[in-house]
Design brief:
The complex is a heterodimer of chains A (427) and B (168). Chain A has an 8-stranded antiparallel beta sheet. A 4-stranded antiparallel beta sheet of chain A has the order 6-5-4-7, with no helix packed on it. Helices cover 28% and strands 28% of the residues of chain A. The longest helix of chain A has 25 residues. Chain A starts with 6 loop residues before the first strand and ends with a helix. Chain B has a single domain, classed as Nuclear Transport Factor 2, Chain: A, CATH 3.10.450.50. The longest helix of chain B is centred in the first third of the chain and has 16 residues. Classes of the chains: A alpha+beta (427), B alpha+beta (168). Chains A and B meet through β13, α6, β19, α8 and α9 of A and β2 and α3 of B.
């Protein structure tokens, strides 16, 4: 498998092609689990989801069941959710607060710091048995950046801040929307499957080339509500100027002039006249705190940021954190949350959530058509990839300077990093 | 539709059942404009997130939380052949049961009912949506209208149901 090229990048002829086997082949999936997911920093959750000692959330991260929690000193911890005795999942609740986690099978219990605390009939173990040898195991690395918590299964991974590279600037543009620099995950999880390869969602999450054709009904919805849209010039396919930009280590983003409205802080008619003063108040706070130029940067541009390999921060119609992981070559599980400033008023929060649902999620007016597109690709390539082996990804390659958001530089950025890890990685 | 008694107080469970069965038939037949005509001018349609079935959409992320304007926008979209997730359209079949009037005042009834909605797409396995409806029905000019319609799914996550791209 190693001798078969999966990404063909030829700057000379300005050709870039991706092998469709990467979307179908189970061997490639096994290899990317080890070489991509297990060597990178993978998003676990947001610090606001667990607030006090003992708070926990259980979820699957990087394919492993984990307990994401606060320990007795209120530090963020991640434990592998498997009992050291026989392996049963120790915690089977989705969320809560616990002094101890007790495995119901034989009753082994662990304290908030993951230490093995209680072993029924402990005296019947031989003298060599020591409870201290059996704490809940942790991934080798857990670090956070501005409230976003990541893990890595690679003990030799570079520090998270270094890994994030240029993505930090764009994360900052999201977090700076909060007056205190503290965003919080709003309750309510969108948790759904897509019958397509996970990498198709990476592409789709920041591919703006598909906007006009895939989302024409969403654009019509905005137009019918009174939102003004005009193409800036003949170079552009889209209603406003925007670029695609690599950020290092496979991360990339779109960086667009906003036309779609933003809870922080650009009113559009979809929000309703009653919401206008609230949005203007948020805008004033932003200007007072950050200055005119930085406030405009935060509020009048929007961005879809991919943190390699499987985290999207979509800061568009609202802010969403979306992460996804392959269940099979042709199937992924997606989880998405809304993120908002901690100090947001109840009315501003309602506007944010309403704006979110105009576009995003399995019941939104746009995301379902993305899902349909991905499933159409998967259905198209699954049985034809031998006869039709390559997908074309060369938009913008002949350009010098900025590449538009409807070009494919940012998509190629993802694929080049993916290819590098697949070729050089360890299993 | 035949005339209904003007006062919510005189409406029976049989009246409500007939109304809900009629609504289900309209939705299964994709007669979306006729369905819109069943809604009040201030109607809401909501599908809560699976992990917060009892929450308020003003403070919780839902799957769907439409006011009447977005319901109309949703219907406009669904009638457009560029609503790709429903083009070609899903076939759906709704089973409505366990209909109960759980509260009433002079104008409005609170109604709950169980549902199973089967959704069929070409070359795809059946997707089953199981849960309960919470309705607020209003007697308006002698007819029942839907003022609030909440579809609460029982599944812990949307999972293999995937999308709620049709009117659930």
């Amino acid at each position: 498998m190693n001798d078969r090229p999966l990404v063909l990048n030829d700057p000379q002829t300005q050709s870039f092609q991706v092998s469709r086997a990467t979307l179908v082949d189970p061997e490639i999936l096994e290899m990317e689990r080890r070489r991509v997911f297990d060597t990178c920093w993978i998003y676990v959750g947001h610090e606001s989801e667990v607030r006090a000692p003992g708070d926990f959330r259980t979820r699957t991260v990087c394919g492993r069941p984990v307990i994401f929690c606060r320990d007795s000193g209120n530090a963020l911890r991640v434990f592998l959710n498997t009992c050291r005795h026989r392996g049963a999942m120790v915690c089977r609740e989705t969320e809560g607060n616990a002094k101890v986690h007790t495995c119901f099978y034989h009753g082994w219990s662990y304290d908030r710091d993951g230490r093995l605390d209680g072993v029924p009939g402990e005296k019947d173990y031989p003298p060599s048995f020591r409870k201290a040898d059996f704490p809940l195991m942790e991934p080798p690395r857990v670090e956070s950046y501005r409230g976003l918590v990541f893990l890595s299964f690679d003990p030799r991974a570079v520090p998270l801040a270094e890994y994030l590279a240029g993505a930090k600037e764009y994360i900052d543009l999201v977090i700076d929307q909060s007056p205190s620099g503290q965003m919080e995950v709003i309750q309510g999880t969108q948790d759904y499957e897509i019958r397509a390869n996970w990498k198709l969602l990476v592409e789709n999450s920041f591919d703006d080339y598909h906007l006009l054709t895939t989302h024409s009904t969403w654009l019509d919805y905005l137009r019918n509500a009174g939102v003004k849209m005009q193409r800036p010039d003949r170079e552009h396919l889209l209603p406003s100027h925007g670029v695609g930009k690599p950020l290092g280590n496979g991360h990339a983003t779109t960086d667009n002039v906003n036309f779609r409205g933003r809870p922080v802080a650009k009113w559009i008619p979809v929000y309703g006249e009653a919401a206008r003063p609230e949005i203007e108040r948020i805008r004033s706070e932003l200007v007072a705190r950050l200055g005119e130029a930085r406030a405009a940067r935060v509020a009048d541009t929007n961005r879809n940021l991919i943190v390699f390999p499987n985290l999207l921060l979509a800061d568009g119609s609202s802010v969403t954190i979306r992460t996804f992981y392959p269940i099979a070559p042709d199937r992924m599980r997606v989880r998405a949350w809304a993120l908002g400033p901690k100090e947001e008023t109840a009315s501003a929060r309602a506007i944010r959530l309403d704006a979110f649902l105009t576009f995003y999620g399995p019941g939104g007016l746009a995301t379902p058509d993305d899902v349909e597109a991905l499933e159409a690709v998967q259905s198209g390539v699954a049985a034809t990839y031998r006869e039709v082996p390559w997908s074309v990804m060369s938009r913008g390659m002949a350009k010098t300077g900025d590449q538009l958001n409807s070009d494919e530089l940012h998509l190629r950025t993802f694929w080049l990093q993916w290819d590098k890890l697949m070729r050089t990685g360890r299993d | 539709m035949k005339k209904r008694p003007a006062e919510a107080a005189r409406i029976t469970r049989a009246d409500v059942e007939e109304f809900l069965f009629h609504e289900a038939a309209l939705l299964d037949d994709w007669r979306l404009d006729d369905w819109l005509a069943l809604l009040t001018g201030d109607a809401r349609y909501e599908v809560p997130s699976n992990d917060r079935p009892d929450a308020d959409s003003a403070s919780t992320l839902f799957t769907i939380a439409d006011d009447i304007d977005r319901i109309r926008g949703r219907v406009t979209r669904l009638k457009d052949r560029n609503a790709h997730a429903e083009s070609p359209r899903s076939r759906t079949r709704r089973m409505i049961s366990n209909v109960r009037i759980v509260g009433r005042n002079a104008r409005e009834l609170s109604v709950e009912a169980n549902f199973v909605v089967y959704r069929f797409r070409r070359d795809a396995s059946i997707r089953e949506y199981v849960g309960r409806y919470r309705y607020v029905l209003r007697a308006e000019r002698g007819a029942l209208k839907i003022a609030r319609r909440q579809a609460v799914l029982d599944a812990m996550e949307l999972g293999s149901m995937g999308l709620v791209s049709f009117i659930l």
